[in-house]
Design brief:
The protein has seven helices and eleven strands. By secondary structure, the chain is of the alpha/beta class. A hairpin with a 2-residue loop joins strand 2 and strand 3. The two termini are 25 Å apart.
């Protein structure tokens, strides 16, 4: 059984600002250093450690590919990681990567480049769920009260027990996710995640695997402080997974 992971990493990361990056001349968050290694490398290592993963496909801007390939070789990741040219949007980057996935692949997982704290057990759990149901995502229940608003006026209070905050990885059967992207392209539909494209097909119900609030998406400078704390906790001998 083959499971491929697609990591879209061609984004510009404009919300991060000008914090010092690993790659000279860029401020993109996926290349920023966390304990000496780019965030992207930390993310990839989590999937390398997961037994179910067959390959990792990283979608990058064209002018980053040579640099990234050298980085992956230096980090000892070249045997499982390969790169493809991404697009102007996340959706296009994932679609470009999908086009390179071998036809005998059973499942495809998509994961944010800047979620380096996903746990291996959660990766394996969402893959197992997708193997049964065809589509599965990771999510957490919100702890805050959620309001529906129109402009600055509250219209409803939404029941938290019926809501989740979606995370990644999101995992789908290969044929299903390819069909979803083809349909989205035909309809000129842009989704905020891969699940939203699959949901439009109305062929399968997307299952949810409970994640953790540690699986943060690093999008702004203040997230780096929390990331350093989580990395220190992972390195602690008292930390268990």
């Amino acid at each position: 059984m083959k499971v491929s992971v697609i990591i879209p990493a061609a984004g510009l990361g404009t919300r991060m600002g000008r914090s010092a990056p690993e790659k000279e001349g860029t401020s993109r968050k996926q290349f920023m250093l966390l304990n000496g290694s780019p965030i992207l490398v930390h993310t990839i290592r989590k999937f390398v450690s997961a037994p179910s993963i067959t390959e990792i496909v990283v979608a990058l801007r064209a002018d980053d590919i040579t640099w990234a390939n050298e980085l992956f070789k230096k980090e000892g990741l070249a045997s499982i990681v390969r790169t493809v040219e991404g697009g102007e949007s996340r959706q296009q980057s994932v679609e470009n990567a999908l086009a390179t996935i071998a036809g005998d692949t059973e499942l495809v997982a998509v994961h944010d480049a800047v979620r380096p704290f996903v746990e291996r057990d959660i990766i394996e759990a969402v893959i197992a769920e997708a193997r049964e149901s065809g589509a599965a995502i990771v999510g957490i229940v919100p702890v805050d009260t959620v309001k529906q608003v129109h402009r600055n006026k509250v219209r409803a209070t939404l029941p938290r027990e019926r809501l989740i905050l979606t995370q990644t990885p999101q995992v789908f059967r290969l044929a299903l996710i390819r069909q979803a992207f083809e349909k989205a392209r035909e309809d000129v539909f842009i989704g905020t995640d891969e699940s939203s494209l699959v949901e439009r097909l109305e062929q399968v119900e997307v299952s949810v695997v409970l994640g953790t609030d540690r699986n943060i998406k690093i999008t702004k400078p203040t997230d780096m402080e929390l990331a350093r704390l989580y990395l220190a906790l992972e390195s602690s001998p008292l930390e268990t997974h």
